[in-house]
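[job 4471] stage=fold_predict status=RUNNING
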Amino acid sequence: MHDRDLIAGLRDRLAEAGLSGSFLVRDLATGEEIGIEPDRAYPIASLVKVPLAIAVLEAIRGGRLDGALALEISPGRAAAESTAPGLAKFAHPVRIAVDDLLYLAIAISDNAAADALFELVPPAEVDRVLADAGVSGIAVRHTMRDLYAVAVDGLDQAGVQVAHAIAVGARTPGGGHPVPQLDLTRANTGTARAVADLLAALWTPSTIHPEVAARTRALLRDALVQRRLGPDFMSDSTTWASKSGTLLNLRHDAGVVEHEDGETYAVVALTESAVPAAAQPAAEALMGHVARALHDRLRNR
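[job 4471] inference complete, writing structure tokens
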């Protein structure tokens, strides 16, 4: 089977599940890659926490921040993220060090922890750190609090379905959307290729400082949310490091799989569902199947 036949078959399977997607798998040693629409831009939701972590770690390395600095997080401060795991669920104020906020932001995708870090390193600075590292194609424009202003907090099931239906049906051909956080001109955005470039910069020698890259890799290996690509790439003979992102009908996952024979691949899946439902486990399993099929084709060439 030729690559084009494999890709056509995978596209058909995605369409049958109500998904459209941008996938890319890249061999980090050779640069060889295979993908499906890897240059299509999407709002990247919580994937933005990876550039945020890099920017915070660079500020720590440069002496502008102290990783041991403890910040006070109050329940009121985190109220906007009350549907999310982590600090938003706390009932009482707590003091947490910057280093530990980094762990929470990546490991459990804690939005309140990420926003505390964004107060120290705002979106414009994160965007500048990416530019200084030579990573293009990712735009960082707003915080997690701004992102989850579209959250479905307090809505009943019918309201949740309406919110998803609006997300599904209102996009314009040019990428515009009445929901600002889904509008490509206003949201945090990126492409599968750009996210793969970022992962490559973390796993191979680049303009990202080695200490910053090593700590970011360690944070991604500790990520606990693994329901999408993780099941297809985690095993006793591999190391999998990743970050997921979710907003309404958007489901993303991006990571690096390191095989025991030394081969290392960046794997990125950015998807959009046409099904107005919050829970779609079959669609998430299909994301992993498509990514694994592309990985296996590239590895076995």
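[job 4471] summary: The chain has eleven helices and nine strands.
[job 4471] exit 0
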